[in-house]
């Protein structure tokens, strides 16, 4: 029998076990699941082999946690990237819009130390000649020396510790009115009662600063006397009880010498005073001192008579004596103004010092704004008088005139409504001079009108100020006048007034290296940076196509500027007197420079001049010119720009009176002069760098005369004996140098003075 070799199985279907058996792989795989739990059917060897195989195998780890963790990280990174991209876009957008600019650094002047001797007391008085003013200090006239001196002063021992308390000196009556030909006027003709003269003290407190701008001497103002609160305001109700007709304020605190001002007289009961009646009787008693009254105008726009008022032809009559001009003091107020006792001190002083004590040289009026245009004040006399009476304190009734914006739109109709900055052209803000111009038109008996405000205060005698400023202005020559008007006079830097005039002439004739704007040098011609500026000589009418003005009555120069020896204008009464420079708003960043209505501005604006703060003296000629320009030519400008610009166009005489202005910090005067006269060719205006540009007006905050200054109100309240920012008050006066004593200082603004009153039983 032949030898048979067994046929091999496919290697892929099985394998030879260690004991020599052939194991079918397919059957094993099929039986793995069924036999896994049946340990009895498995051989020990197979169980050991299976165990060996399990011991040497490596299963893959779980991946679910890793995947989730990775996904979270990716999402976080993606969100962070998107957030950073969004923040970057927002930051770029805010930078472009200017919203996220870093705050600007504080102004340089905020690093200057405060002056302390404004608060000096009445027990330390010395004459001006003997006084060593705390400021200006010629030895410390740079930024570095100012800061260094302040540091030395803080570390040095105080000089006040050696102060020896003295008694209050004897005051003296202060009456600046020349009594020649004046018939005495009284508050009450039957009782022959009048207000006592102010009480002044010789000298100023030791170390009292000098004015940084302006001067007493050039006007002839007496700067070597000072006034405490009782000597200045005592005659008008401060310091005595309400039961005697006073205010009831100033009853407590330091009162040594407070009653000197009365000189033994009885206090005035202001509950019985009628100022309108007293003012009228005073003017009537002294009428021979003044020019004859012209025919009064009636209110023909409401009376509707046949025709209008006729003006009598003027007759030239020879007068043996020079007759005085009548002047009106027009106080701008409004219907619902709340008059407190401190306001009453101010108003009583104005009427008494300007009208009664002068023998009727001035007449005080209230120009009352009725803000409700729907109030029927023109319906009948009863309604008009009722509203007027309700608008003024009882003692001032009979001295007011009502006006409304609707009335102005009737009188000055046809003027274009430009709605500049969202405000109406006939509104009180943009056209303050409209009611004043119409008031002057209806009152031809007055030659001059003092435009005054409710938040002005003067620590001296009002007649002294008005009279000296008016007479000085009338003596100013026309040559170089507009150029001097545009600059601050800083005596510590400019020297005497004659030195200042010479400096202005040189700057005008030869120019300076000052650029009027940041782009001026683009022309590439450096020679244009130093050039002369033609002086203003005669009228400067607008040159826009179609612009018309009435020029037949405009004053003309008698000769050319080079032939005039500073004689034209001397003795000529000023048409416009301001208490801030008349600056050129061209090229400045003054926000209201373009509030010009009725002129052709396609090729540029007409010549303009602006004086911040409307307080001023205006002639009847100027106000009548403004009235006709607005009513007939439809011309107007912003309130603080219109009078000066109108005077410039028509060649009228305008004067900036550099009255004494004080500042609350130790500015280096060279730096101060550079800041305040930083306009074109050394002027205060005419360039973007002007101190009147909006971004630079913060430099006025510490001065005693500017519309938003903080120093005037603080100084006035300290002078009244109250604490301000934790300083001053009763104890400081009693234990220290006594009450503050200030020379004549014109302050603006002074608002919301809260007086402290006596406590009365039952209150």
From TrEMBL:
Keywords: Membrane, Transmembrane, Transmembrane helix. The keyword Hydrolase does not apply. Pfam families: DUF3405 (PF11885). It comes from the Eukaryota. InterPro entries: DUF3405. The chain crosses the membrane at residues 68-87. The keyword Plastid does not apply. Residues 25-54, 128-175, 514-567 are annotated as: Disordered. Residues 147-163 have a biased composition (Basic and acidic residues). This is Major facilitator superfamily transporter. The lineage of its organism: Eukaryota, Fungi, Dikarya, Ascomycota, Pezizomycotina.
């Amino acid at each position: 029998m032949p030898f048979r070799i067994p046929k091999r199985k496919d290697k892929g279907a099985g394998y030879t076990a260690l004991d020599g058996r052939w194991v079918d792989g397919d059957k094993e795989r099929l039986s793995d699941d069924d036999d896994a739990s049946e340990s009895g059917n498995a051989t020990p060897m197979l169980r050991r082999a299976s165990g060996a195989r399990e011991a040497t195998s490596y299963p893959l780890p779980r991946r679910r946690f890793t995947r989730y963790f990775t996904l979270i990280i990716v999402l976080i990174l993606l969100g962070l990237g998107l957030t950073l991209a969004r923040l970057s876009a927002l930051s770029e957008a805010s930078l472009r819009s200017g919203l996220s600019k870093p705050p600007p650094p504080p102004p340089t002047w905020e690093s200057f130390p405060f002056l302390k001797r404004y608060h000096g007391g009445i027990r330390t008085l010395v004459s001006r000649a003997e006084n060593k003013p705390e400021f200006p200090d010629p030895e410390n006239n740079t930024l570095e020396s100012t800061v260094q001196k302040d540091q030395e002063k803080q570390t040095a021992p105080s000089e006040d510790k050696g102060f020896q308390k003295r008694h209050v000196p004897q005051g003296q009556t202060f009456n600046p009115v020349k009594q020649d030909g004046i018939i005495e006027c009284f508050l009450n003709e039957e009782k022959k009662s009048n207000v006592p003269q102010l009480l002044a003290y010789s000298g100023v407190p030791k170390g009292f600063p000098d004015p940084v701008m302006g001067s007493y001497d050039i006007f002839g103002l007496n700067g070597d006397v000072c006034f405490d609160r009782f000597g200045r305001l005592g005659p008008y109700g401060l310091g005595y009880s309400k039961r005697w007709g006073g205010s009831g304020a100033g009853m407590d605190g330091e009162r040594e010498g407070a009653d000197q001002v009365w000189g033994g007289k009885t206090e005035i009961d202001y509950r019985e005073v009628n100022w309108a009646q007293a003012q009228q009787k005073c003017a009537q008693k002294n009428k021979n001192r003044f020019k004859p009254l012209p025919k009064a105008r009636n209110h023909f726009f409401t009376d509707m008579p046949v025709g209008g008022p006729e003006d009598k032809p003027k007759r030239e009559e020879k007068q043996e004596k020079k007759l005085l001009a009548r002047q009106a003091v027009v106080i701008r107020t409004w219907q619902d103004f709340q008059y407190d006792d401190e306001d009453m001190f101010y108003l009583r002083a104005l009427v008494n010092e300007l009208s009664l004590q002068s023998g009727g040289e001035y007449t005080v009026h209230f120009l009352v704004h009725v803000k409700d245009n729907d109030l029927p004040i023109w319906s009948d006399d009863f309604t008009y008088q009722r509203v007027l009476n309700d608008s003024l304190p009882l003692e001032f009734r009979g001295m007011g005139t009502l006006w409304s914006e609707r009335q102005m739109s009737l009188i000055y109709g046809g003027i274009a409504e430009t709605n500049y900055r969202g405000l109406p052209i006939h509104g009180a803000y943009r056209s303050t001079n409209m009611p004043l111009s119409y008031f002057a038109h209806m009152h031809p008996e007055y030659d001059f009108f003092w435009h005054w405000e409710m938040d002005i205060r003067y620590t001296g005698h009002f007649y002294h100020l008005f009279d000296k400023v008016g007479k000085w202005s009338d003596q100013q020559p026309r040559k170089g006048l507009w150029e001097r008007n545009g600059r601050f006079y800083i005596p510590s830097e400019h020297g005497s007034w004659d030195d200042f005039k010479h400096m202005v002439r040189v700057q005008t004739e030869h120019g300076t290296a000052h650029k009027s704007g940041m782009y001026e040098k683009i022309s590439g011609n450096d020679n244009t940076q130093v050039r002369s500026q033609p002086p203003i000589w005669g009228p400067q009418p607008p040159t826009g196509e179609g612009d018309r003005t009435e020029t037949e009555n405009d004053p003309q120069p008698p000769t050319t500027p080079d032939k005039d020896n500073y004689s034209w204008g001397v003795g000529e009464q000023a048409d416009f007197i301001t208490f801030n420079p008349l600056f050129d708003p061209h090229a400045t960043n003054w926000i209201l420079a373009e509030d010009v209505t009725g002129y052709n501005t396609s090729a540029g604006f007409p010549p303009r001049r602006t004086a911040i703060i409307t307080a001023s003296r205006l002639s009847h000629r100027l106000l009548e010119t403004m009235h006709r320009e607005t009513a007939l030519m439809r011309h107007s400008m912003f309130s603080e720009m219109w009078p000066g610009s109108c005077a410039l166009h028509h060649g009228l005489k305008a004067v900036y009176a550099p009255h004494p202005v004080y500042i609350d910090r130790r500015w280096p005067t060279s730096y101060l002069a550079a800041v305040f006269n930083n306009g074109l060719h050394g002027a205060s205006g005419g360039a973007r760098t002007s101190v009147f540009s909006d971004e630079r007006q913060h430099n006025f905050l510490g001065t005693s005369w500017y519309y938003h200054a903080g120093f005037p109100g603080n100084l006035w309240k300290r002078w009244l004996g109250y604490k301000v920012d934790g300083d001053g008050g009763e104890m400081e006066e009693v234990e220290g140098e006594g009450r503050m004593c200030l020379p004549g200082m014109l302050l603006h603004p002074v608002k919301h003075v809260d007086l402290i009153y006596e406590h009365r039983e039952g209150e």
